[in-house]
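*** Query protein ***
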Amino acid sequence: MRRMRLFLPCLLLLAVSAAQAQSYTNANGLVYTINGGAITITGYVGPGGPVTIPNTISNLPVTSLGPNAFDGSTSITAVVIGTNVTSIQEGAFTYCGLTNVTIPNGVTNIGDEAFYSCQGLGSVALPASITSVGITAFGQCWSLATITVDAQNPVYSSLEGALFNKGQTALIEYPAGITGSYSIPSGVTSIGEAAFYSGRLSSVTIPSTVTNIGELAFVGGPLTTIIVQAQNPVYSSLNGVLFNQSQNTLVEFPGGVSGSYTIPNTVTTIADEAFFSEYGLTGITFPPGLAGIGEESFWNCGLTSLSFPASLTNIGCSAFGFCQSLTSVSFEGNAPTVCSGAFFGDPATICYVAGTTGWTNPFAGLPASPCASPGPTGSLQVTITPTAAVSAGAQWQVDGGTWQNSGATDTNLSVGNHTVSFSTISDWTTPSPQSISVAADTITTITVTYLTNVPQTLFMSEYFDGDIYQFSPGGVPSTFASGLAGPDALAFNSGGDLFVGNELGNSITEISSAGVLTTFASNVEFPLGLAVDINGDLFVSSGSYVYEFTPGGAQSTFASGLTNPFGLAFDKAGNLFVASPGNIYAPSPGQGKIIKITPGGVQSTFVSGLANPVDLAFDSQGNLFATDPYADTITKFTTNAVASTFASGLDGPAGIAFDAAGDLFEADYSGNIYQFSPQGVRSTFASGLTDPQGLAFGPVASNLTNTIPYAASPTFGAVPLSVSFNSTNVDAAGDPITAWNWSFGDGSTSTAQNPMHTYTNIGIFSPSLIATNSFGSALIGLGPASIVVTNSTTAATWTVTGAMHDQREFHMATLLGTGKVLVAGGLASSSFLASAELYDPGSYSWSYTGSLNVARDVAAGRRRHSRVAERSRARRRRLWQRRGPQ
């Protein structure tokens, strides 16, 4: 391919002939030639500052800015291009001091690298006439934040500052001045050559629609993470690295990663330019099955040594060219086929195993000889937990050598003892160095755990009260957030933000580390399980799906075809485990299972034959724990799915979470939170709770004392339903309120103090209010948790539908958030009923659910009905529980 000027020296051959066009210079320092009655600007010798390219010189039209015409003109600050110019040729303004450029309508072509490394250029506007933009036309313009395109342009368009084709299916160039993370829009099918070349992003997310990625798409810059959304048919990602879908080809390594890297054992091919100019890469471990290394794959790298496996058969042209720190190259097998220039410019020597074939001296342009006979060697693999510590930068090294990432393998270690030490990272306690014995021809594996120094606290959701509580170390609860709609599952991201699944509100609430509530996602039906992966993406179980949300809120389907997925948990390898209790309306032993889903979206059954698993958590050793409210147990599963009972005799265990010390906490339907030591010894951490559900450990947060009440009326009615919302104009301290930000739960918002909103759809909606006082402090609105909008009716008429299984009177009927009706108890003839049925208006049918423990009716004035109260665990257990006398 055409190599980038940043990385490669070039040899310029000048052939000067008698027929060469004569050069002229005008009074403003523009150097030009005349060709066919038109002028091409070929150079600049002026004083700098703002420069105007005139329409004509000596009455001849200026039609072209030639190759490298203003190359290196750092004194130029702005350029206005004349209206006769149609072409800005390759490298015309490279390394200029431009901060502004005006490109007129009429220019049709911008050549490769035309404005390369104009580092002060902040924005570019392309006219309607542009039909060709070259590769990295604006590459390494590190102030460039916006590329805009005239709406009438037939070839190109722009979106969020990036350059796309007209249909926005191809991303052509992303501005190098934008920092942070970027999610490529869904619908994009191709990423252009060098599209993110030498940019300043740290993370890029590729949607499932992308099927083609050009060469050097992500080369250079601080990029450390490439994420491919699940279900992409061509590509995948693992630990921030881009692979093909089957992960047997490493496609591209992010340019901002430094240190050493171990290529996964699944890889057999390294693609062309995969590690191009990775000069921060100092160590690489090749997998034992590697067969081919592509052209320029490690060009201009920072590697100091290479050890190739016996499986290697081919090395592409210039694969390791200009790796000027490379001194040692060893081969374990026969000589591979090596393209010319594979090690061009390297000061290395080659050694090969005696007895292998195909060797010459020199080989591939380097001195080659048999390796000295080594002594016996072994390998060491170190895994670091938890993943939050890995994300924070935790690494390990052997005997003071190269720092390596979690999961990497250090090979060719001498037999005997070696010292493994660990990096120091902020907010974590560094593990003590360990002396590890390495045996010959074996891989020794160890797992090391970092403990956080950041104070952690336990958070709990209470479903019926709509509250989130945090607990002191002694188990004393305090309110962290209120007014949620059936909060259940909880999950923290690495930034300390808490995500809450609102089962009644069909939404996800995000509570920032500062305590501000926002709606992260809506229209998510029954979000029963939440988990955050190492990349910060949120995974949500809902219906028969698991959805994936990027930190920016972009939603995609990660898995489908599941049976009532509940709790979610990630293992150390990034596999997602899903609790699947089966038929939640009629739980029975043997129908539950736990599903394992790889990062690529491949599903398999981890374990089956369970009763009713609902929540999951991993300990630091990789063991999986599952609560089962049907069996009243917590089960422990080893990494190979061997099961053992960790705790029994519980009362409907729900959410579980591990603290940093390895103790397991369990939310129990009895109103208690139990704490279990790693050995399974149980103690009561907190008691007297109403309805404990989800648990999660996160950073200590302050109580949300800054609240503001609001009212809504009516909160129930037929569609269209007009609701009046009212708030105060001062806070509890008497300070004026300066802003009101309402979210009505249906996608509509308002900034009025007392808005009126009309709901035009049927459903249950969760309104929210964030107000701001005169000091700029955020106040959380406390008011009705939900607005229920029912079917519109024109007359109070009855229609005969499916009959109940049991004839009953004086029974209880409850409209559930799902739209279904739960009927329980009642009087049949002369006896009370304990049965309960569920009516589905979609099918006009009734189905039995769990029976009451005590038969009763609710006849007014009757002395016969029971004083014992019960509640249905319709969300998790689908059983009835006695709650004590009324």
In short: The mean pLDDT is 86. The longest helix spans residues 387-391. Helices lie at 387-391. The chain is about 0% helix and 40% strand.
